[in-house]
């Protein structure tokens, strides 16, 4: 039985055990980094190719800790109104109109401002919500490399001090400090300021042995021998000069596909007809078929 203490773990081993119970096969490096993050109260920046389990790590950690997962999906053009907070302008306008109808002096701006820029009119977005909840929280800032370099500044105060400053309202500090995981597919270089605030973890493609174990864990009913052959085949494809190598999620999809087709082995005909599950570009499919002969 894993004994979780608050939002932390008692040991590195317990991290691995808890993640395993949450259906995530950890490695020593992953377990160590997660343990240190909970002890040092530091965010984790997880980099690596798409589909290698970065986002799933945050989801599994939330399940392991019985914590709420708060997710901010990053994209180009993300701003503070979508990431941090927004004022409820329609409600503010109604309050001003109600004050006018009640005979309050609309010229007394200080009183009006103090009223409408209060918590009642604040709409928390993922970052503010994550530090405002009383229960345990895992905050996932997903694909942070998709935002512009200037937008990273939105995250820095939270990552260093676990607080957010709202000019009209004041500083909001974490009610209960969340565990923060940022993921990056490394499509662009992140700023030194962001990296400095985080523990770094790289999750790459797994070894054949680890991928076999992941397949056995995630695909019920998959024969061990077939799982080993799928892992070997995926490793072979990743050794080729492809536009996009198959991710773990795609090998899982392929394993389910093979089970659905009642395949007992990786015979050439079955492999050739299902390569589109593993590979997403026709040029890559053709290269793989040429390798198969």
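-> sequence recovered:
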């Amino acid at each position: 039985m894993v004994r979780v203490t608050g939002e932390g773990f008692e040991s590195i081993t317990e991290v691995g055990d808890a993640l395993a119970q949450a259906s995530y096969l950890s490695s020593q490096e992953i377990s160590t980094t997660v343990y240190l993050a909970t002890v040092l109260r530091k965010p984790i920046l997880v980099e690596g190719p798409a589909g290698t389990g970065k986002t799933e790590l945050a989801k599994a950690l939330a399940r392991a800790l019985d914590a709420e997962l708060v997710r901010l999906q990053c994209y180009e053009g993300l701003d503070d109104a979508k990431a941090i907070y927004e004022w409820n302008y329609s409600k503010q306008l109604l309050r001003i109109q109600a004050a006018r109808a009640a005979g309050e002096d609309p010229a007394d701006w200080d009183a009006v401002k103090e009223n409408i820029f209060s918590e009642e009119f604040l709409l928390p977005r993922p970052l503010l919500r994550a530090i405002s909840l009383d229960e345990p929280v895992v905050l996932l800032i997903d694909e942070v490399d998709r935002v512009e370099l200037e937008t990273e500044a939105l995250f820095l105060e939270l990552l260093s001090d676990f607080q957010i400053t709202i000019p009209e309202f004041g500083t909001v500090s974490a009610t209960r400090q969340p565990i923060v995981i940022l993921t990056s597919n490394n499509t662009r270089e992140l700023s030194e300021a962001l990296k400095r605030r985080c523990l770094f973890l790289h999750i790459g493609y797994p070894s054949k042995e680890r991928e076999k174990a992941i397949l056995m864990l995630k695909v019920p009913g998959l024969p061990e021998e077939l799982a080993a052959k799928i892992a070997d085949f995926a490793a072979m494809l990743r050794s080729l000069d492809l536009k996009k190598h198959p991710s773990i999620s795609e090998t899982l999809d392929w394993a389910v596909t093979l089970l659905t087709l009642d395949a007992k082995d990786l015979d050439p005909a079955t492999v050739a007809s299902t390569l589109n599950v593993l590979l997403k570009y026709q040029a890559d499919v053709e290269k793989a078929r040429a390798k198969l002969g």
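The chain has three domains: 4-77+134-202, 85-119, 208-287.
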